[in-house]
Amino acid sequence: MAVQRKQVPIDGRLFKLPSSPSEKAHLIGSRCRSCGETFFPKRSYCANCTSPDMEEVALSTRGKLETFTISRATPPGSLIQAPYGLGYVRLPEGCIVQTVLSECDPQKLKIDMDMELVIEKIREDEEGNDVMAFKFKPV
Amino acid sequence: MREVVILGVGLHKFERFTDKTLVELGEVAISNALKESGVPFKDIEAAYVGHCYAAMGTGRSVVTQFGETGIPIVNIEVACSSATQALLRGAWEIASGLYDVVLAVGVEKMGTGLISMGGETDRYIVEMGYMVMPASYAMRARRHMHDYGTTFEQLAMCSVKEHKNGALNPYAQYQKEITLEEVMNSRMIADPITLYMCSPTSSGASAAVICAKEKAKKYISKKPITIAGWALSSGTYAREALEFGGMEELAQKAYNRAGIGPEDIDVAQVHDAFSPGEIFIPESLGLIPEGEGGRWIEEDKTEINGVLPINTDGGLVARGHPIGATGIAQVAELVWQLRGEAGPRQVPGKPKVALQHNAGIGGVIVSIYKR
Predict the structure, then answer these.
(1) Which of A126, B157, B254, B364 has its CA 20 to 30 A from that of B195?
(2) Strand, helix or coil at B111?
(3) Residues β-bridged to residue B242
(4) What residues of chain A, 83 to 112, have a C-beta less than 8 Å from chain B?
């Protein structure tokens, strides 16, 4: 029987993988208890008011595409191969997420369209685990 | 605070490949700046040297070619605005009375292709393909097209104008005009930015000698140009901003310090790491009404003979962009324009007030210069 390979996030600060099939993966953000602003990725001090009173929050998995581009070149060290979409997705919490897009046809992307979080394997690590990264795809 | 003037500027031509060392590049730029200023090196009290990819202590290696006089030589890194920050660090110290005469330098040698941050970057940022420098300008350009109806042709027109000006600049990396079709049909790098809308990787050097205005008479220099006001920001958090927030306020701070408004600017240099920057940056500085940047380029308003000449030396796209040296090259062009020495690139009508916008991932500077 094939053993299910273990999945690990590319960076534990960015998102949480589901711990059971009924759960969904979500990005991890920080909400400032002092001024109410929400940020991604998470941070210890508020970028808006400098307060250290931050709480970790599970961010919405859907948002709107603020703008995008299609990179036609693969930057040094990137495991994502060109062409690929890059964009900013605005989540309902107000924060903006810089993200790779699963779609790279500019005709199929539109500013303000609804986008959804997806988690995909990007490489394997030294222990043979699947290293997972996040993207957003059009809904 | 004391007034600060620029007595001399100098460049080493920007080029894609060079066999010269950083020291050799810097020596040419500094020597040219010293000549223009009439200041002997022994009068320089401190030096600030901007660079991003060079070895530690590069500033000392470059500057002490002119003599080991024991002055403090400090390296400055603010990414693409390193050289301007070197200049303004000196200006602050002269203004506050610490020194009378300071040398500011920018030197850089770069490889080719998409640039990296150097040093340590979070692994996920590299592996997930975020390090695409044109992407940031591309996404702002696409948003501008969506919000204001700016066209791909208008973005390409910026590159045509940059190359047209670069063809008149003996220090420019690209001194050849280019057609609209060539820009539009060149390889797509990050939609809607094509290859000929990208600043190249470059090597080169820039230098400026600055002095307290009250001490400037000591030197037989070219006409001194006043650094009238400046402001630096690392970006203010704003929910609606994609990256750097607070640019309008930053520009206003520089205008206030110089005692002028955007309507007084006769010639400007803006940080066009990618051509579309010539459309949305002047809007953020209040130089062009919001949303009209595309129309302005189409109506030739930013040409050398236009109502607001922008990047008369070819900008980063045609002049070249050796990251740590770019800032003082922008300043050099403005100094020559204000002195009326820009030759075939000279803005008509004797420009009196000039604006510089120099931006990088390390910070954004807006500076005003006056004749």
Answers:
(1) B364
(2) coil
(3) none
(4) 84, 86-88, 94-96, 98, 100, 106, 111
pLDDT tens sequence across B318-355: 999 999 999 999 999 999 999 999 999 999 999 999 99
- Tally of CB atoms within 10 A around B279: 29
B217 and B350 share one domain: no
CA A107 to chain CA centroid, Å, is: 23
Q: Break chain A into its structural domains and give their ranges.
A: 7-138
Check if the beta carbon of residue B171 is closer than 8 Å to that of residue B154: no
Name the DSSP letter for residue B350. -
Say how many CA atoms lie within 13 Å of B171 toward its Cβ: 31
Report the distance separating Cα B148 and Cα B264, nearest Å.
Answer: 26
CATH classification of the domain holding B27: 3.40.47.10
Find the CB nearest A66 among B122, B135, B242.
B242
Give B263's DSSP letter: G
Determine which one of B12, B52, B80, B357 is catalytic: B80
Average pLDDT over residues B122-143: 93
Q: Are residues B286 and B360 in the same domain?
A: yes
What is the domain count for chain B? 2
Note whether residue B265 is domain-resident.
yes
